[in-house]
Automatic annotation (TrEMBL):
This is Phage portal protein, lambda family. It holds the Pfam family Phage_portal_2. One of its GO terms (biological process) is virion assembly. It comes from the Bacteria. Residues 487-500 have a biased composition (Acidic residues). GO terms for molecular function: structural molecule activity.
Length: 500
């Protein structure tokens, strides 16, 4: 980590020095606050060492080790199958095919119109044109968990009439950009704070897409209202994020070495290696004359006094059990059930799968509602509504107030069931007992109740118009009766209503 010499006047900002590893001038002389002072080696994934290390100031320790941890986390994600599977499982559970945004305007017509406008925009919101809103959300969450944090630039185009989104990687907001400002504010690891400690801007070094190698470009100041900072909050006073993989990187690297050693041991033990021993040292050369090929049933005669000893390397006992234990430790550190990481369901049963998935779903809900919604989904929605409202794109809604258009509900994708019949029965019983509404039941499956009811009504109307229904719906767990078969010459009369 580079050490920067900074001259600060009276009452210097010690927070900047602690966070960035600078030397600051105080009344008593030079006070060094380098990486060792802020505990850079306390993040084991950054230094790769174990022991009795302590973390005295979590935000400083996180800043000191965040960048090195990010580099190692990226390498592990692209090269370690366990790490990649665990992280992808979290992203898939949180994002799926895309979270659902449900407007909360009191008028149902306005809600439907907002959804009708928002959906097409989400298909073309990527500034780079590589994916849609669902794909961007998944990529943002993956980068935030793997790298520690990620940024999203809200770009107004067409004179502010349209909003585009661009992902800004973590290293673009320079960790080394730290200094005190004349107005009483300060910049810490590329994040600018005002005199009150409020985030007001980010200093971004944008890469040059035409450059074949990294080059220095001056940082550009982007307002915090235009650059979303997505990270998992781990400590009070946290400035930048820390990779979720930090707790598992060291163990994952050691597990790789263990598996490599075990594989080499198996290869060595499979080698056909023999040693000819001559205790007296007087035997003739056994390789004089023709050499018989080793085939089944071949009898080979050695000169007197010679013996052959075959290699028998010691096998690592209980290697498979130990590797399974290490995989469970990695899965625990990442908050993922071990069978998802290992792919081994040989010892799983219904109870263990259900218990593991329940804890995993609780963790997914926490990430979704405490990280994705406040840091990403709600700001994107509110910015899109505001720009669309000011541009006049929502004039067909009948001139509602902007404040009434901003509230929205964000629903995570439905989680897969282990036993769909048992889970549906539990939902029905909860609704019958009055402890769950139908809206809650529909939301738990990742659907909007208005959209679902409209689709059901449209299906019934279509069936009624075609004379092919209504199809009987099973109730109380009873099997459904077969629907009557209607041939082309057996259609109901036009004036006859279908039976309901």
């Amino acid at each position: 980590m580079p050490v920067r010499i900074t001259r600060i006047g009276p009452a210097p900002s010690r927070r900047v020095a602690r966070a960035t590893g600078t030397r600051q001038w105080a009344d008593d002389g030079w006070n060094y606050a380098g990486p060792r002072a802020v505990g850079g080696a306390s993040i084991e994934a950054a230094g790769g060492r174990r022991g009795g290390a302590t973390i005295h100031h979590a935000p400083s320790a996180m800043l000191a080790g965040a960048q090195a941890t990010m580099w190692k986390a990226r390498h592990a994600y692209f090269n370690n199958g366990y790490i990649r599977r665990a992280l992808d499982a979290i992203v898939t559970a949180c994002c799926g095919a895309g979270p659902m945004t449900t407007p909360q305007h009191p008028d149902a017509t306005v809600r439907a119109a907002l959804s009708a406008h928002f959906g097409p925009w989400g298909l073309r919101c990527d500034a780079d044109g590589g994916t849609d809103l669902a794909g961007l959300i998944a990529a943002i969450l993956r980068d935030a968990l793997r790298d520690g944090d990620v940024f999203v630039h809200l770009i107004p185009v067409q004179d502010g009439r349209r909003l585009l989104l661009r992902i800004v990687p973590s290293e673009a907001v320079d960790f080394a950009e730290s200094r005190a400002l004349p107005n009483g504010g300060q910049i810490v690891a590329g994040v600018e704070f005002d005199a009150n400690g409020t985030r007001v801007a980010y200093w971004v070094r944008e890469p040059d897409p035409s450059a074949s190698f990294d080059s220095y470009r001056p940082a550009r100041r982007i307002l915090a209202t235009d650059l979303l900072h997505v990270r998992e909050i781990l400590s009070a006073g946290q400035v930048r994020g820390l990779s979720r993989l930090a707790a598992a990187l060291v163990r994952a690297g050691e597990l790789d070495q263990l598996q490599d050693a075990a594989l080499v041991g198996v290869k060595v033990s499979a080698m056909h290696l023999g040693v000819i021993v001559d205790p007296a040292g007087a035997a003739s050369d056994p390789f004089d004359g023709p050499i018989a090929h080793a085939e089944p049933g071949t009898m080979i005669r050695l000169p007197g006094g010679l013996d052959v000893r075959w290699n028998a390397p010691a096998q690592v006992s209980q290697t498979a059990a130990f590797i399974a234990s290490e995989i469970r430790a990695i899965a625990t550190a990442l908050g993922v059930p071990s069978f998802i990481v290992s792919g081994d369901l040989s010892e799983a049963n219904f109870s263990s799968l259900r218990a593991g998935l329940q804890a995993f779903r609780a963790e997914i809900e926490r990430l979704f509602y405490t990280m994705l919604v406040p840091q990403l989904l709600r700001p994107i929605w509110e910015r899109w509504v505001t720009l669309s409202f000011l541009a006049g794109d929502l004039d067909d809604l009948g001139a509602p107030a902007l404040d009434d258009l901003l509230p929205a509900e964000f629903l995570p994708p439905a989680q897969p069931w282990i036993d769909p019949k048992a889970d549906i029965a539990a939902i029905r019983e909860a609704m019958a007992a009055g402890i769950m509404s139908r809206r809650q039941a529909v939301a738990s499956q990742g659907w909007n109740i208005e959209a679902l009811d409209a689709e059901i009504a449209a299906d019934r109307e279509r069936e009624r118009a075609l004379g092919i229904g209504p199809f009987p719906i099973p109730a109380n767990g009873q099997p459904a009766a077969e629907a009557p078969e209607i041939t082309s010459d057996e259609s109901p009369a036009d004036d006859q209503e279908p039976e309901t």
